[in-house]
Amino acid sequence: MKTYGSEPGAPTPDPVQVGISEFYVTDEDVTLKSYGLGSCLAVALYDDAVGVAGLAHAMLPDGDDNDASEENPGKFADTAIRAMLRQMVERGATYTDVEAKIAGGSDIFEFDSFGEAVGKRNVTAAREELDKLGVPVVAEEVGGQRGRTVEFDAGTGVLTINSSDEEAGGVTEL
Amino acid sequence: MKLDVNALGTFYRMAREGAGLAAGRLTSMTGVQTRVGVTKLNFMRGSEIRAEINDGREKVGVRVELSAGLEGHSIIIFDREAAREVVQTLVQDEASGEFDEMDQSAVTEVGQIMTNGFIDGWADVLGTVIDVSTPDFIEGETAEPFFGGLETAPSEDDLALLFHSRIEAVGTEIGYRHYLLPEHDSMSEILERQSDDGSDGIEYDKLVGFDELAQQGATEVANAVTTLTGIETSVDIRRLNFVSLETIPEEIADEKLVGVAFSFDGTPSGYLLFLFDEQSAREVVEATVPSPPDDEFGEMGTSAIKELGNIMASGFLDGWANVLDTTIDHSTPEYIHDMGAAVIDPVVINLGEDQEYAFVFDTQIKAEGREFDCDIYAIPNEEDLERALNDLDVDRVEDAKTTAEFPVDEAESS
Hints:
By secondary structure, chain A is an alpha+beta fold. Chain A has 3 helices and 10 strands; from the N terminus they run βββββααβαββββ. In chain B, β3 (59-68) and β4 (72-79) form a beta hairpin.
């Protein structure tokens, strides 16, 4: 999704805010940030060797069954991961060197109308897609009943998670 | 004039594309990186638009007349201070007290560049050509100089469709308001062309009726809060928005919030959320619990907030059901105490499986001289809403009373 009114040569904002259904790929040393993930899932991909990173803020699990994924691949965990990986390779990442970290996918409400917990389904969909693509999930902080804000340091590949759960210390680094 | 979701989706894309182009051109003109913030379509009454502009602050604006593919007027209004900042960025001018000729022409230029960005974006989405007149520079403190004498300006009770977007420069927001006042026939022609063949759409008049009812619902909620807590509250802002689902969480403050969420079922079905900032939630607990606990968000506080939520939800939804002549049941309350967007994204996701856009009935309740803010989000399921509105007898709205009463035992028994 085109959200930045950027012109050639304009500086990259830092941090880059990655909104719901968006993803962002960069080879610059910037922070990618997604606020207030509930059932949404953050997927962070990183190639340590060349320093190419990407962060997706996916909303739903399965884009292959949904026509909207063509126009907006970032909305779905599976299509977001594929689109992001493709762009990372275009920026010089090596397919087999990319590692993944995931966070989010909680299930805060228990309404009858919600059916099967979508937070869990998002996590499952991401794991399956990454597995299919041979991208290892090296760390994760998922599930539960709390919201999370994530910051992904595109220079180092460190994913910092601020959680509303103070008992868990509030901040986790993956 | 009929609105269908497909056509509104087109308008929404117009708003977003237009803001994107406007931001891009500002960036190339000023060298300042800009980003498009939240984009919404608002339905607002003429009286509300005027009230919004009549806030006592000095404003400057740029107005153009549109013709060909879209007829009407486009007006960009800056607070004078914001305009001055924009001008300073542009012409590196030291601030002087007056808006001199050079400042005026700089503002007009910015306004025109933004307007052209918006309009090129709209024309792209509509696949048409839109002609633009030379811009007028306007100054004033009230709506009169900006809207006065325009045939397209909405009368007091008419709902106008407004394009609402924000452009943020790095570290600061470029404060402006943008009003598109389309000419009625031109608008209905576009709506018709963009509508989905299979869809019934919503009669525009019914939307007006429903908005009226939503207003009553909001007033009932404010009354309920006052009855239960003794805190004098009133409806501060109320908007009927049409937005892409992704926009809803983006708009929510990035701080810890306390909320009560309900799902409701009937015609329409959907979700209803009441969100308080922490301080307001504390006020609620202190006002309703006889001997307030040390931890306001412990068990006792939680149940007090849920209770209040329950009463508010009944008031709100009874209002809807009365006017729509349907039955709407709501779930038991779900309590949330979590960070900003996380409290609403599960609802957005759930609706997102079947729809791209949503009508959001967005209401803010405030108390005089006290820390009590409550944001109400009512997000009906799109198909249900369309059905409910089409069955709506607009004349009934006039007569319908929101008869909801708030016996305290109702809260305790839930």
